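Lecture notes, part 5. Sequence design as translation. It can be helpful to think of inverse folding as translation between two languages: the language of shapes and the language of residues. The source text, in structure tokens, appears below.
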């Protein structure tokens, strides 16, 4: 199948999962995870209907920005973010999805203040409690969320999670359901900011349909659109 056909198929699957859950398909947006893709491939994806690109690596993102590859789409940073790379990201992307510590939050506030912008962010939640993954524990979300909404150069838009790799179909639904409840609770607690908090980013190529069934508003899909990525260090053919 072509890239355009893959995008159409994923969008159809999202819509079907939304209707199955009694949701409006228009509530969910596909984020094309463009890690290791070329600028031409990114342009083709946008031409085929992708409205948001998600990048994992600052160096790749910077090169694509210089190439104007994201023209016509919004840009999210969805990977692990180091504080020494913030000057290349803050103010350059529409949303940083991967804010998984108070230290990173403070650094984003400082960089945003320095450049005179208000940076939209999501708090990354380590919903599976995996040592190999970044993000804060679910119990820590209220405290970090309250701090985020108090900062003048940061705008909290919601939550993001990468649950454990599902060994069987449907295995991640409990994690997605937990994230949905956490999202609802945070919106209710931060009453003055409920109009800003509208993003629940969860679900990838293997499980995005279950994420939609459990309340995702953003799904980050790469392989199902672009095919398998090459091994680390090898260029994509």
């Amino acid at each position: 199948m072509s890239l355009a056909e893959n995008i159409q198929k994923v969008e159809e699957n999202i819509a079907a999962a939304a209707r199955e859950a009694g949701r409006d398909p228009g509530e969910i947006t596909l984020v094309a995870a463009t890690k290791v893709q070329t600028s031409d491939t990114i342009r083709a994806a946008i031409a085929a209907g992708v409205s948001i690109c998600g990048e994992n690596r600052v160096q790749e993102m910077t090169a694509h920005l210089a190439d104007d590859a994201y023209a016509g789409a919004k840009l999210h940073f969805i990977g692990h973010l180091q504080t020494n790379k913030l000057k290349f990201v803050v103010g350059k992307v529409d949303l940083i999805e991967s804010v998984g510590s108070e230290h990173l939050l403070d650094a984003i506030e400082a960089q945003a203040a320095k450049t005179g912008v208000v940076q939209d962010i999501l708090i990354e939640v380590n919903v599976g409690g995996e040592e190999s993954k970044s993000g804060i524990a679910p119990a820590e979300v209220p405290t970090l969320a309250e701090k985020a909404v108090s900062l003048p150069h940061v705008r909290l838009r919601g939550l993001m999670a990468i649950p454990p790799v599902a060994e069987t179909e449907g295995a991640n639904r409990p994690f997605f359901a937990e994230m949905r409840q956490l999202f609802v609770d945070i919106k209710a607690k931060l009453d003055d900011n409920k109009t800003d908090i509208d993003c629940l980013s969860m679900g990838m190529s293997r499980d995005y349909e279950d994420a939609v069934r459990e309340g995702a508003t953003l799904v980050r899909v790469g392989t199902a659109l672009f095919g398998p990525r090459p091994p680390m260090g090898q260029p994509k053919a």
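The translated text above is only one of many valid answers, since several sequences can fold into similar shapes. The first helix runs from residue 3 to 20.
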